[in-house]
């Protein structure tokens, strides 16, 4: 069994049924005081996909379709790696995701990632003739 996590560039495809997909977001600038990292989808209401405040996730305002399917590195704010892992990607997850950092005063958009989830990838073994006993 292989690890089927797919790393995405700025725009990529992933198949439905993969274990997870990584939406990359790295930052090299100044981390503000009381920082918040926010992943959003502007075509949803509520638009929050994942929110990290200081060292903990704040998922109270998270869109319900992502419940239990998103995570960030525990040391995200220390490493400035704000990449988001989305487990069990579904076709309805296809959209543009925005990664931002901010605090109560201002917010800075870091990147937009286009995610396209395709229908399930069939195992080529499914097409081969099967032996009958």
From TrEMBL:
Its main location: membrane. PROSITE patterns: IG_LIKE. One of its GO terms (molecular function) is signaling receptor binding. Keywords: Immunoglobulin domain, Membrane. It is found in: Membrane. It comes from the Eukaryota. GO terms for biological process: regulation of cytokine production; T cell receptor signaling pathway. Residues 54-77 are annotated as: Disordered. InterPro entries: Ig-like_dom (IPR007110), Ig-like_dom_sf (IPR036179), Ig-like_fold (IPR013783), Ig_sub (IPR003599), Ig_V-set (IPR013106), IgSF_BTN/MOG (IPR050504). Gene3D superfamilies: Immunoglobulins. Residues 3-111 form the Ig-like domain. GO terms for cellular component: external side of plasma membrane. Transmembrane segments: none annotated. SMART domains: IG (SM00409), IGv (SM00406). Pfam families: V-set (PF07686). This is Ig-like domain-containing protein. It comes from Pundamilia nyererei.
């Amino acid at each position: 069994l292989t690890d089927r996590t797919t790393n995405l560039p700025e725009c990529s495809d992933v198949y439905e049924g993969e274990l997870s997909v990584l939406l990359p977001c790295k930052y090299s600038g100044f981390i503000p005081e009381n920082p918040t990292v926010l992943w959003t989808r502007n075509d949803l209401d509520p638009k929050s996909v994942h929110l990290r405040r200081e060292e903990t996730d704040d998922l109270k305002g998270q869109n319900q379709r992502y419940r239990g399917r998103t995570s960030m590195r525990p040391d995200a704010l220390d490493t400035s790696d704000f990449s988001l892992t989305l487990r069990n990607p579904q076709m309805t997850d296809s959209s543009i995701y925005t990664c931002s950092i901010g605090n109560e005063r201002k917010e800075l958009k870091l990147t937009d990632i286009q995610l396209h989830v395709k229908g399930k990838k069939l195992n080529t073994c499914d097409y081969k003739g099967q032996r009958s006993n």
